[in-house]
Fold Geranylgeranylglyceryl phosphate synthase.
Amino acid sequence: MSVYNDILSAKAKQDKLLAILIDPDKFNFKLISQFTDNINNSIITHIFVGGSTVEVEVTQKLVKALKPLTRLPIILFPGDVTQISQDADAILFLSLISGRNPKYLIEKQIEAVSILKHTNLEVIPTGYILIENGKETAVQKVTNTLPIPSMLHSLVADTAKAGELLGKKLIYLEAGSGALQPVPLAMIKFVKQDLKIPLIVGGGIRNKTQLQEAYKAGADLVVIGTAFEQNQDFFEELKL
Ligand code: 1GP
């Protein structure tokens, strides 16, 4: 079984995918069984785990606890090498290709190798592109890089294509967690025109209409975190 092959076949069939992003730091372990029931009975297809924590055990504890409660693939979306947990199914091996900070282009990846060697994680090379959204996001602060301005569609499309040509298997357009504005739909459409690999879009998507618009514009997989954290009814809204 391969998480990436499943994403590829969904794309080929034009089946749209939805990942819930769970931040280990904000997770309430007491509610885990209700929470996973909600996930299992929804249109969610993937569970992403990641956040800004650098506490080694927190991510591992969460992944271990989730694993027996769901059949959905658990994919690490790490903010740091300390978030690598061997109990997950796969890891997005991110390279921040919108930025010019060597630490997040290659240095962290080198650091990760000695940890990955001791796991069976499926490693999915992913070009990560930060898009301006109206406010400074955590990723921007942590990585000390600037997002690409939201009107520069061709720069984003060329960056995504360069990622593909470098061998990335996924491109992730990120407006940032809690973004005021999601990635513009026109930008998703533009990027999609010349991209062959699956496109992930996330950041600031808070309702079902925005989710469907992102799919229609060309997102193959959408990532939503904040709406699940802040809106108790979001699971219900997705069913409508
Ligand atoms: C952040 O794209 C994800 O990395 C999800 O963002 O929390 O705004 O849904 P939200």
Summary: The first helix runs from residue 3 to 12. The beta strands are 17-22, 46-49, 74-76, 90-96, 122-130, 170-174, 199-202, 221-224. The two ends are 31 Å apart (CA to CA). The CA atoms of residues 18 and 103 lie 29 Å apart.
